[in-house]
Design a protein that fits this description.
The chain is α/β, with parallel strands linked by helices. It has helices spanning about 10-15, 35-45, 45-50, 55-65, 80-85, 105-110, 120, 125-135, 150-160, 165-175, 175-200, 215-235, 255-260, 275-285, 300-315, 335-350, and strands at about 70-75, 90, 95-100, 140-145, 205-210, 240, 240-245, 245-250, 265-270, 290-295, 320-325. It has a domain at about 25-275: Alpha-Beta Barrel (TIM Barrel). The chain contains 16 helices and eleven strands. The longest helix is centred in the middle third of the chain and has 25 residues, at about 175-200. The protein starts with 7 loop residues before the first helix and ends in a 6-residue tail after the last helix. Bound molecules: coproporphyrinogen III. Coproporphyrinogen III binds next to strand 4.
Length: about 350
């Protein structure tokens, strides 16, 4: 395998010197690209696509070719973990995810297995990681990922997406021990899963805590952050002679940046609700920062997008430890030309901050 030709992303994660600010975007392989929609049609649906290592690799590489992204992210979904634990997962067209048998009580949680061998239950993801590494051939690093235990639990208890999270909150408040048992099983499963991804070639990993922000500060610590910390402490942080950076992203968690940085992660992911200079002043000397343009800025014209990129770069200022990204995933109806303009603006405008 060829050595890495572009390691800007890995260097920025570790706050090392870079020639310009690296950029990738959450959900960069997805429905806004006609190339993605074509591959998904060929696969016969989203979950079939996730189960085909060759086609996963194809869609993972699409944004590397189209956007010139500085990192690739494994194409999969956070919900393949509960599926591998025995839950029945489906995605209706134009709908979100659905579990036909959501968890309702202690007995349901007790029955769930802990995944300890990712090559068994999630072997197709391990194969996808290895296939993507082969096909990337050293162009850019590959990021692996998982959902946080809390975020996975919300889908497993609600049976899908939710507006007010009534079921998962009721379980958390009424049966905290059941919730802790579930989160503990998920933390152990997810740690083994990420270590499997790292062993198969993931060069960095991100934990997506999409729903941590719906919790109070106290509950965030007890029901989300503590479990992410447990995962971080179990990860293999060294592979192929390089450090494997860990990125922790809690949407809606900007009030807790210091605590997130204290988990021992290398990078804190920012949503768009905080100015990056404020985040940097609070924690920027301890960890790298990833973010944080408002994803809806991609509906604006390219010159407005460039102005926003310039503002974020100026707020971060000179110095290392910035990975440019959106504050959450790109939405399906964004014109691809706007995404291309966004990446180009970061590449061009960031050079002056690294001279
Ligand atoms: O970022 C990437 O390009 C890698 C692929 C990726 C997907 N899902 C593919 C996907 C990643 C990292 C995820 C993570 C994920 N999945 C999260 C956490 C990140 C976030 O966005 O908050 C969550 C909460 C999920 C669960 C999930 N998967 C939902 C709620 C949905 C439906 C909503 C939607 O956007 O349609 C999915 C489906 C999904 N996952 C799609 C893709 C490309 C769309 C499916 C399709 O092609 O029809």
């Amino acid at each position: 395998m060829k050595p890495l030709q572009n390691d800007l992303f890995l260097r920025a994660c570790l706050r090392e010197n870079v020639e310009r600010t690296p950029v990738w975007m959450m959900r960069q392989a997805g429905r806004y690209l006609s190339e993605y929609r074509a591959t998904r049609a060929k696969a016969g649906g989203f979950l079939n696509l996730c189960r085909s290592p060759e086609m996963c690799s194809e869609v993972t590489l699409q944004p590397i070719d189209i956007l010139n992204a500085d990192a690739a992210i494994l194409f999969s979904d956070i919900l393949v973990v509960p599926e591998a634990m025995g839950m029945d997962l489906s995605f209706g067209t134009g709908e979100g995810p659905k579990f036909s048998d959501p968890l309702t009580c202690r007995a349901d949680v007790e029955k769930l297995p802990v995944l300890d061998d990712p090559t068994r239950e999630l072997g197709y993801v391990m194969d996808a990681v290895a296939t993507i590494r082969r096909d990337l051939n050293g162009r850019v690093p590959l990021i692996g990922f998982t959902g946080s235990p809390w975020t996975l639990a919300t889908y497993m208890v609600e049976g899908g997406g939710s507006k007010n999270f009534s079921k998962v909150k009721a379980m958390m408040f009424n049966e905290p021990e059941t919730m802790h048992l579930l989160l503990d099983k998920l933390a152990d499963s997810v740690a083994a899963y990420l270590n499997g991804q790292i062993a198969h070639g993931a060069q960095a990993v991100q934990i997506f805590d999409t729903w941590g922000g719906i919790l109070t500060s106290r509950d965030y610590k007890a029901f989300s952050l503590d479990y992410m910390q447990k995962i971080v402490s179990k990860l293999n942080r060294e592979n192929e002679g390089r450090r494997v950076p860990v990125i922790l992203y809690t949407k809606g968690g900007m009030g807790w940046l210091e605590a997130i940085a204290d988990t021992g992660c290398d990078v804190v992911g920012l949503d768009w609700s905080i100015d990056i200079d404020v985040a940097k002043a609070r924690i920027g000397d301890r960890v790298a920062l990833q973010g944080n343009m408002d994803p809806t800025m991609l509906y604006a014209q390219p010159d407005r997008i460039r102005a926003e990129v310039k503002d974020i770069l100026a707020r971060f200022g000179r110095g290392n430890g910035h990975v440019f990204n959106l504050g959450h995933g790109i939405t399906p109806d964004v014109p691809p030309e706007h995404a291309i303009a966004f990446f180009k603006a970061v590449r061009e405008e960031s050079v002056q901050y690294h001279r």
